Amino acid sequence: MYLSTIGRSEHKVSRGKIAANVLALGTVSLVTDISSEMVTAVLPIYLVLSLHLSPAIYGLVDGLYTGATALLRLVGGYLADRVSRRKTIAGIGYAISALAKLGLVAAGASAGAIGAVITADRTGKGLRTAPRDALITLSAPQDMLGRAFGVHRAMDSAGAFAGPLVALGVLALVGASSTDAFDAVFVTSFCIAAIGVLLLILFVRDHRTPRPATGTVSPRAAAALLKSAPVRRLLIAACVLGTATIGDGFVYLLLQRREDIGTGWFPLLAVGTNLAYLVLAAPLGALADRFGRLPVVLCGYGALVVVYLLLAGPVSGWPLVVVSLALYGAFYAATDGVLMALAGPVLPEALRTTGISLIQTGQAVAYFVSSALFGLAWQVWGIGPSMAVAAGAAVLAIVVTFGLLRKVR
């Protein structure tokens, strides 16, 4: 069978093999990311070109898309640990995000309504991400966490790779200039997201443990996580790294404006990033297990610095697009799952989901601030100076993160 009950699968998985539960979670993420990346791929151009939002307003909306509902990340992580039902909390999150796709159709051209729907969508993501990642850490041995997260993120990025292509197909079928084109993308996205929820229900196995003893999982115990120096350092580093990230939408909009890429072809920019992510996620995860997770994360942010410098420089043409997207995908492959693999071993199992959600929340809040500030900087200073400042901030983030985490094992 494709799946089996994992129990304490870190003792059952033989070396070199990835647990069935990791593969099941990867399949759910693959399908869900097809849905979410369909929306992500068209949202920047929908908001900026169709609804004519300014860069500053778009920066707020883009920050909201990733950084909103940070508190609910903590609530979801804490509840998952408290009731020992990580799959249930994750499933609720997946379902909310699926329904939000229909909300984009109902929102029409109202910026306020779109902001509310995006908040609902991110509420779902906030609820599901930490329980899902906690299940991965509990489904693989600690010395294989980089590989497990790499395989999961590779499957996730396969969906992210396919999502913009599906969006492109829908736009081509309906007509990119049609007033119904974006609604068709949103409805198709909902249908695919619903399939992802069904797959979660049918195939993912929870890591069920007895209800924790009184006081083991409590607000006081969760707050006590910050008394641990490694956890505290990871949280600060996540915030610093989040501040150095301006977001996908800005990168793609800058490339689109520079190369005058048409609306119908805009989703292919996300395809390029996700192709690099897909190819590199598993190898870089294995590399992180063998040679160290922190060096891989820092190299990933080094790739991000190069992307920012390329976008700030004079180079143009298809080489700029190809190199920028390849490096941007490498950045995600080296950082997304690897940072969670770095966090897993330093968090107690009873509070694993809470700890992961705490770190993800810090990064999300920092990203919200970064995106809003970059949108304002773009509008006031222009593209070149803004990207140069972003590159400098990313270099500073690498130095600070190295100082914080070089002793964390």
TrEMBL record:
<dbReference type="InterPro" id="IPR036259">
    <property type="entry name" value="MFS_trans_sf"/>
</dbReference>
<dbReference type="GO" id="GO:0022857">
    <property type="term" value="F:transmembrane transporter activity"/>
</dbReference>
<feature type="transmembrane region" description="Helical">
    <location>
        <begin position="318"/>
        <end position="343"/>
    </location>
</feature>
<feature type="domain" description="Major facilitator superfamily (MFS) profile">
    <location>
        <begin position="21"/>
        <end position="409"/>
    </location>
</feature>
<feature type="transmembrane region" description="Helical">
    <location>
        <begin position="294"/>
        <end position="312"/>
    </location>
</feature>
<feature type="transmembrane region" description="Helical">
    <location>
        <begin position="234"/>
        <end position="253"/>
    </location>
</feature>
<dbReference type="InterPro" id="IPR020846">
    <property type="entry name" value="MFS_dom"/>
</dbReference>
<keyword id="KW-0472">Membrane</keyword>
<feature type="transmembrane region" description="Helical">
    <location>
        <begin position="265"/>
        <end position="287"/>
    </location>
</feature>
<feature type="transmembrane region" description="Helical">
    <location>
        <begin position="364"/>
        <end position="381"/>
    </location>
</feature>
<feature type="transmembrane region" description="Helical">
    <location>
        <begin position="387"/>
        <end position="405"/>
    </location>
</feature>
<feature type="transmembrane region" description="Helical">
    <location>
        <begin position="157"/>
        <end position="178"/>
    </location>
</feature>
<feature type="transmembrane region" description="Helical">
    <location>
        <begin position="184"/>
        <end position="204"/>
    </location>
</feature>
<protein>
    <submittedName>
        <fullName>MFS transporter</fullName>
    </submittedName>
</protein>
<keyword id="KW-1133">Transmembrane helix</keyword>
<feature type="transmembrane region" description="Helical">
    <location>
        <begin position="21"/>
        <end position="49"/>
    </location>
</feature>
<feature type="transmembrane region" description="Helical">
    <location>
        <begin position="55"/>
        <end position="80"/>
    </location>
</feature>
<dbReference type="InterPro" id="IPR011701">
    <property type="entry name" value="MFS"/>
</dbReference>
<dbReference type="GO" id="GO:0005886">
    <property type="term" value="C:plasma membrane"/>
</dbReference>
<keyword id="KW-0812">Transmembrane</keyword>
<dbReference type="Pfam" id="PF07690">
    <property type="entry name" value="MFS_1"/>
</dbReference>
